[in-house]
User: What shape does this take?
Amino acid sequence: MKLLRFEAGDGARLGVLDRDRVLDLTAVDPVLFAPDLGGLLDGGDAALDEARAAAPGAPAIPAFRAKPLAPVPAPSKIICVGQNYMDHIREQKVEVPNSPILFSKAPTCVIGPGEPVRWPAGLTAQADLEVELGVVIGRRMKGVPANQALDFVLGYTVLNDVSARDLQFGDKQWVRGKSLDTFCPIGPVIVTRDEIPDPQSLSLSSAVNGLVWQDSNTREMIFPVAELLAFICRGITLLPGDLVATGTPNGVGVFQNPPVFLKPGQHMRLEIERIGVLENPVEGGT
Assistant: This one.
């Protein structure tokens, strides 16, 4: 399924994207299929099965009438992975890490498709983008081994790890430069894990005003998704609805020659195979 949080004139709702229409699950059961994902996350795989069964009979609306919202409205945390693509390692000319490099983004920076990325005027002159496979956790994870880790995934989404490079590198740690408000666009959907049994074979790309910046494949990951989840949850409990950003490939602005950065008035288009396209305008300093 392609789970979609959307708005069609009567508040947030949860549905299933089915080609050119959206099947309104909230209309079927407003508790189990609450727009905040609470019922679905609490219900686990059984709730997903109910969603699959309910979708064909749910009221349908044309997809063009459904404004996509951030598919995960309020994750308790966003765990990110740095330097996890071999092509990104090569462009930086750095050593391959021996273990995953973790950092976090503040949950308050999440926005949905079409929402503008902005920052306080004068705060940064080096806003950059990063296309990433976002993993949405479906069940509480603690001490789960890699060979079972994907069973705890609800699904996958497109995630843009927008980064203020001057703050990121100037602070000597990455949290502030990665966590400015609006710096985590996600969407447009969550594709449930049954539709992507192997997350290590997905093409992904980013473009700004039609010019391609990144074009790679998740097979370039140094640490696959299952290994990342096992590494994280060995010491950090992952909760339903948490997001894991799995790293970005080569081509980000700061490592281009010469470096390029996002400017007001530009348009970002990120795409991951089998998930979809995430688009956001750049509004810049406000």
Notes: Helices lie at 25-28, 38-54, 86-92, 146-149, 165-170, 175-179, 225-233. The longest strand covers residues 276-285. The first helix runs from residue 25 to 28. The chain has seven helices and 19 strands.
